[in-house]
Amino acid sequence: MHFFKKEVKDIFVSNDSGVRDNNLPSSLKRKNVYSPIENAPKGGRGLGLKLLQSLRFQRPSKESLKMAMEGKHDPKEEEAVDQLREMLFLDGKLPTKFNDYHTLLRFLRMRNFDIEAAKDAFLKFIKWREDFKTDTISKDFKFEEKEEVKKCYPHGFHGVDRYGRPLYIERIGMVDLNKLLQITTLERFIKYHVSEQEKTSSIRYPSCSIHSKKHIASTTSIFDVGGVGMANFSKPARYLFTEIQKIDSSYYPETLNQLFIINAGSGFKILWKALRAFLEPRTLAKIHVLGHSFVHELREIIDPSNLPTFLGGNCVCSEYGGCLHSDKGPWNDPDTLALLQVISSADETYDNEKESDFAPKNDLLENTKIQALEEALEETKKKIELLEIALESTKVILKDASGRIKDLRS
């Protein structure tokens, strides 16, 4: 059953001031894909008001809370989400953890708003998580070889694009697969990839949303393929590529904003013809294969401060041993993480209380979530006040110690 066909739109990128920016490279303007999943209907206020209220420990209204956590919804998309939610609930197949607007919307967009197909994809997603033990992977799986792996497979998150999305970079042309397989196994690398996807969903996207004051739910990626050709597409490489692509496409749909493939030479272009066969049209529409003149295109989408020097930016992250070792981004900001913890605690309280009596639009449950968030915010305020008192006491002690040191020296 198709609920509706979403009209295809050109991609637009918002700058930091929130104004729509049409300054996309001409090569991107020619491609038509679904508008980015973060885009809200005109008139949406996004996260700004609510988050500022939270940081000042004011009591938010019910409506501002909804706008903060969800953003403004498209009415047609919301109706489709409600239908999918009802179908899953009636079948007893809707875990509380994934009963949220944006998760269900991703599966609807994945299947062009065919609700039956979206339901089937969602159920496969839940089954895969059970089999892969994804819910506990952050606690159960430790990738101790990560730093050694990065030496022969340079990759990592590094800052955000101009809209506020996480920026992910791989230097595929520098991958030494033989050395990689001496350090780890393909199975462990795939599990590491899933753990990073989980971190992105649960920490990076929410942190970027708080930092940019709008809903963030996708990643901008750059793959440097300089020197890559058919010789690089060995059997282990094919296995790794197809497994990761299958996981990302099936279980983390609509999380790719755009992928820029740079330094594409003649060897890669031959390989690209083979790789395209593994990718779905909705993914291909977001990929832009560039040659060696890519700096201008990247700078239009990403501020130079978030681009490493090897990509035409001005960042080196020398204190971390290089940009791809830094994991630089809002997800490492202590204040952002503290607020995220408050929101997560409120969500957990709310989810536990609604497990036994689910109702998609029950005002009582929404009020419970608001109350839980308010209580968590008040608790955080008390902790901050105690820290401020301790800080003042420490200042007095340090001042006294400084005076004694001066006396001793004299």
TrEMBL record:
UniProt entry keywords in alphabetical sequence: Coiled coil, Golgi apparatus, Protein transport, Transport
Family to which the UniProt record says this protein belongs: Belongs to the SFH family.
Membrane topology: Peripheral membrane protein
Example GO BP: protein transport
Keyword Membrane recorded: no
Domain CRAL-TRIO: 145-319
Recorded GO MF terms: phosphatidylinositol transfer activity
Coiled-coil residues: 370-397
Entry's localization field: Cell membrane; Golgi apparatus membrane
Keyword Coiled coil: yes
Protein known as: CRAL-TRIO domain-containing protein
Pfam family, one: CRAL_TRIO
Transmembrane segments: none
A cellular-component GO term for this protein: Golgi membrane
InterPro entries for the chain: CRAL-TRIO_dom, CRAL-TRIO_dom_sf, CRAL/TRIO_N_dom, CRAL/TRIO_N_dom_sf, PI/PC_transfer
Primary localisation category: membrane
Signal peptide segment: none
PANTHER family: CRAL-TRIO DOMAIN-CONTAINING PROTEIN YKL091C-RELATED, PHOSPHATIDYLINOSITOL_PHOSPHATIDYLCHOLINE TRANSFER PROTEIN SFH11
